[in-house]
Every structure is written in structure tokens, then in C-alpha cells.
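Weekly modeling sync, notes
Attendees: S.R. (lead), two postdocs, one rotation student

Agenda item 3: backlog of single-chain predictions. S.R. asked that every request posted to the team notebook include the full sequence so nobody has to chase files. The rotation student volunteered to paste the first one in as an example of the format we agreed on. Action items at the bottom.

Example entry:
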Amino acid sequence: MATIDDDRGLGLVTGPRAMDIAIAKARDTGMGSVTVTNGRHFGAAAYHAHRAIDHGVIGVAMTIGELQVVRTFGAKPMVGLNPISVAVTGGDEAPFVFDASMSSVAGNKIRIAKRLGATVAPGWITDQDGNPILVESEVPDKFFMLPTGGTRDGGSHKGYGLAVIVGILAGSPPGFLRPPGDVSHHFAAYRIDAFAEPGQYTEHMQTILRGLRETPPAEGHERVLYAGLAEHETEIDRRANGIPYHPDVVAYFRDLAQELGTDSAL
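Predicted structure, as returned to the notebook:
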């Protein structure tokens, strides 16, 4: 739950409700923007942005993530993971749904690697002093995340800059000044018919996405993807065949159920 700055006295709202408000504003004016403060983790950014597609609008969602990412050349984390999602209709193609944190990789991948004792790729994390770890290595006990791009030569200033932009648009104090647990979000919706004829725009998107999907793959690769395509196909498969769980996750829930003296459905 979170508070939202709105003149209709809405009080406490959830992330999905905030996206709905942005969509409603877009219907009225062509573009809707909502900033939520005093929130908490709102799940996957793509879930919120994707809600806009069925309403004939482009959806945007972003949030302040856990303060864990160092700035380029910095020795301590100053911004959050700060994911950004943009969702646009694909017409007959799978919709375009971009969702990525502004860190080098999703934070959960590092936590899972730490739990499993696996190694992580070069340029994902730093040591405890903020020095980029540029060789494949196990996750140290204390580490920070690098921005998207890893190092300055790889473009880390771009990921770092985008992470700062998320904080600005979310109306939050800078990550390093934000009270613990105080998370802000930003939602936006753009009504397609406010700037283009919807049918032509949908055809335009279909042409773009089909062209990306049909791009000849480089040697050693089966196909070319665009943001949202693999997830769309995965959703279809899992709705039909169920959701697979990692054995480590299954073991965790079984052990927890046993500890709590209850049955496990897994």
C-alpha cells in the first residue's frame, strides 16, 4: 500500500490501482502520469506497464529499487536497481514489453548465485570497496551491484544516469537520502489515438516487431528475440503445462513446511 498525491482523495492505493489511475487520466487528456510515494516493493514493473495495452495506451512503470548500485567510479552504492518497463501493443505479434533494472543484472540473480555457490560473470558486481570484479568469480560476502554496462568503458554511465532519472521521475529523495523502506514509483500512460491513428500505429508496431523477430540470427544462435517475445511464449506454455520450480526452491518450501508442521503442496 502507498499514498498517492491526487486531488480526488484516493488515500491508500496499490501499484495496479495507480496504473489504472494513469490510464484513466490518459483517456481524459491523452497522457496520464502518477507518482506514488511511501510505497513498498511493487513486484515486476512489466506487470503494471502491461496493464495498459488492453486499454489502447502505451504503459510505462518504474520504481526505486534497493539501494545497492554504485555510481560510475564510485566506492559506495548511491542509487537503487531502479527498473524501467515500457509496454506497447504488438497487434498480431506478441506485445513489446521491456522490463529491466538499471543495474548490470537483476539483483535476484546475484542472491540465487550466492545461495547456490555459483559464479557470476565479469562486470556484474564490485568488491566491498567498490572495485569492479572483472573476472568470473563467486559472490563475496559483501558486494555492491554495478550499473548497466559494468564499467565506464562498457557504458556504465548510461545505466547509472538512467537509474538517477528513475529517482527523479518517481519524486523520491535521492537513494542515499531515502528513509529505509520508503519506496516511490512512477506510472505513465500515453493514449495512442492522441498522437496517431490507432490502426496505422498497430500496423506500424506489427511491422517493427515482425522485422525484429525475422532478423537472420548470427552463427550459433537459433533466432532473434525482442523484449516480451520469449515471455509471451513462456506464458502460453506455462498456462498449458504448469510452472516449473528449481529443485532448490522446492526443497526450501518443503523444509519450511516441515519446520512449521504443515503439509507442502510441492
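Discussion: group reviewed the output briefly. The helical segments are 15-29, 45-50, 107-116, 156-169, 198-213, 229-241, 247-260.
Action items: rotation student to repeat for the remaining queue; S.R. to check formatting next week.
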